[in-house]
Specification:
Blueprint (H helix, E strand, L loop, with lengths): L15 H8 L10 H24 L4 H19 L14 H19 L1 H7 L5 H21 L3 H17 L5 H13 L8 H21 L3 H13 L5 H14 L5 H19 L3 H13 L11 H9 L3 H30 L12 H5 L6 H12 L4 H16 L9 H35 L1 H13 L3 H16 L4 H18 L4 H13 L9 H10 L3 H11 L2 H11 L10 H23 L8 H15 L3 H23 L7
């Protein structure tokens, strides 16, 4: 394909919308123009306002709140997302989409209107109520297919087939179907379980906050301040990509969106500096994927983790800091060593933004500062904290002439927040069906007992098998849904093996994320390759190498949770931070094969092994790691300084 041609003679400007539509399914939307567009935006904005009103000011019955929320998702899902990719007619929605939209929305609204009586009915449901439940499940599945993709539905379909054919003991198929619909649609164990509950209460408000923050111009500020800070150093544009992605990750958890957003600026600059297209794309993709593990907002799965583990979200954020720093430090070190190896320079002084004008824009960070303060001090609930941060973002925008949030942009921000919620909510709903089916059939216990028996008493084997499950499932399932499934299946396995609950959940969270980088389904890497016009598979492989911290750090905190601030103290945390950073340097140096000069294979191996030992907390491993990494660096330095004088 011309899109991935390695070294074209002439490079035309990349169509970023085309890249987003190719690799980000939620970017494939209907084309609405004129009055229909205004009407759809008003509907999306009304949904955002509804969500904020319900979560902030009401105490509705949970069944009423959740069914109404999903009814909105089905209604807007059919309005926004077409049945298939490709060229769309302007201002057009086919009749069959209208029928499905009405039937699906009606199914959930039926539950909303009759919530109290349905709860009182218990298991005595009429046949038409079963039909309504089936319609609701199928239409939500169709919205998920359109906005998220087919793989998650295949997973859900396999689990449902198992339940209906083998998993339930009743000999009558109709009774098994009746029980499944009642369990998955009319209870809080399926669609309306923890994932959709957390989405409607917490995630939606933060998605809306992200939409408002984006319109304050903070993304351009992040790029400019990163350029001013590190752009002039060796391989500056690649370092800018890492710093920008870490900053953007604080407010956005979408790997592909981050890659395309900041990559449209950083990838061409990296190529101009001298990086290979694949390395430039990989640096951006690996850094952008880290946005989902970067506090304070992280990915949507972090909110779910707080609910599953039953600890405050502020504690999840605090525990995520050190692993996230190690992840980004590994990428930063790798791009630095690659620049030194290739003799690359940074941007010229005249190409760098002036720092003084940028300092005048530091007020753009105020919404984030307010959010972090309110969340960390528990002054307000996290919903209220996000709502207050939204108000601050609007006020801040008034001081930025080019990015003021006018009434028109206010509508656009609310509409963008509503549209962004559809994908996450649809994935959460289907993830609830999957988790509910696993619980309903007792499959969770079977899986737990099977893997525990296979692993024996070896925790490392259970960790490895769990990693494989997360990566394989994550290849086609969004991070949020992946985490929900792993939290219901694999996390309990690790907990039974003696891993603390928070470490077990962080472990499956991390390995659900790296699927965006690892082949064969590495959407962030492929999006970066499209912008860089590089080879997509090679980009995915380089991304995996750069993101090596995401493969090592989870094992470290699973085997020794002190890295997650579990049962530790300040002195130990400082020691862990220092040794882990040196360890990440050792691993990155071993993989890059260069520090002061090109490293022979045995020094690369020594450095990498020493780095891994340092990342794992412990006196013995730290001592061995220091000896190995320090020794390999000393040999490198001495041999690089040695001057050979030719014999006379």
């Amino acid at each position: 394909m011309a899109l991935f041609k390695k070294k074209p003679k002439t490079e035309e400007p990349m169509d970023l919308d085309a890249v987003m539509k190719k690799f980000d399914r939620e970017s494939n939307v209907r084309i609405w123009e004129g009055k229909p567009r205004f009407a759809v935006n008003c509907a999306l904005a009304a949904f955002s306002l509804f969500c904020m009103y319900v979560t902030l000011f009401t105490s509705w019955l949970e069944e009423l709140r959740l069914t109404t929320f999903v009814a909105w998702i089905v209604l807007l899902g059919f309005l926004v997302f077409p049945a298939k990719k490709g060229q769309q007619k302007t201002n057009y929605i086919p009749w069959y989409d209208i029928v499905m939209m009405v039937l699906g929305t009606g199914a959930f609204l039926y539950f909303s209107v009759n919530a109290v009586s349905i709860i009182q009915q218990g298991s005595n449901l009429a046949w038409y109520q079963i039909v309504i439940g089936i319609v609701g499940i199928l239409t939500l599945g169709e919205v998920c297919r359109r906005s998220v993709g087919l793989p998650i539905l295949i997973v859900a379909g396999c689990f449902l087939a198992y339940a209906l054919i083998w998993g339930l003991s009743n000999p009558s198929f109709l009774r098994r179907l009746n029980y499944s619909v009642r369990y998955l649609f009319y209870s809080k164990e399926g669609i309306f379980s923890t994932p959709i509950n957390v989405c409607s209460k917490f995630i939606v408000v933060f998605i809306i906050f992200g939409a408002f923050l984006e319109r304050t111009g903070i993304a351009d500020f992040f790029i400019n301040i990163s350029n001013a800070a590190v752009g002039g150093f060796s391989g500056g544009p690649a370092k800018v990509a890492v710093v920008v992605s870490a900053m953007e990750g604080m407010v956005s958890g979408s790997s592909v969106a981050n890659t395309v957003g900041s990559g449209s600026v950083t990838i061409p600059l990296m190529k101009k500096t001298g990086y290979e297209p694949e390395f430039a794309a990989a640096a951006e993709a690996s850094a952008s994927t880290g946005g989902q593990i970067m506090p304070p907002i992280m990915g949507a799965a972090a909110f779910l983790m707080a609910d599953y583990v039953q600890i405050p979200y502020s504690q999840i954020v605090l525990k995520a800091i050190l692993p996230a720093v190690l992840y980004f430090a590994g990428i930063f070190i790798s791009v630095h060593l690659e620049a030194k190896k290739m003799g690359l320079r940074g941007l010229r002084r005249e190409e760098l933004p002036k720092i003084r004008p940028l300092l005048k824009q530091v007020y753009l960070l105020l919404p984030l500062v307010v959010l972090i303060y309110l969340v960390s001090t528990s002054t307000k609930s996290i919903q209220y904290a996000a709502a207050i941060a939204i108000v601050v973002a609007v006020v801040v925008s008034l001081f930025n002439k080019g990015n003021r949030i006018t009434p028109k942009r206010l509508l656009e921000a609310l509409a963008a927040g509503g549209q962004g919620t559809i994908t996450v909510a649809a994935a959460c709903g289907i993830a609830g069906i999957i988790a509910g089916t696993i619980t309903m059939t007792g499959l969770a216990n079977m899986l737990i007992n099977g893997i525990v028996a296979l692993a024996g008493n070896k925790t490392i084997i259970a960790l490895f098998l769990t990693m494989l499950c997360c990566i394989v499932l994550g290849m086609g399932v969004p991070t949020t849904a992946n985490y929900c499934i792993m939290a219901a299946t694999c996390a309990p396995i690790l907990i039974r093996m003696g891993v603390p609950a928070v470490a077990a959940h962080f472990f499956v969270f991390y390995f659900g994320i790296v699927a965006d980088l690892t082949p064969p389904v590495a959407l962030a890497s492929y999006a970066g390759a499209a912008i860089a016009q590089g080879n997509p598979m090679k980009t995915a492989l380089v991304s995996t190498k750069l993101a090596i911290g995401a493969f090592i750090v989870p094992y470290a905190f699973a085997l020794n949770p002190a890295m997650l601030l579990v049962d530790t103290n300040l002195a130990e945390v400082i020691l862990i931070t220092i040794t882990s950073l040196v360890g990440i340097f050792g691993v990155s140096a071993g993989l890059e094969g260069y520090v002061f000069r090109k490293m022979p294979w045995f020094l690369r191996a020594t450095s990498a092994v020493g780095g891994i030992l340092l990342i794992y907390p412990g006196l013995v491993t730290d001592t061995m790691g220091i000896v190995l990494v320090g020794g390999s660096m000393a040999v490198q330095y001495i041999t690089s300084r040695k001057v050979f004088v030719p014999a006379d």
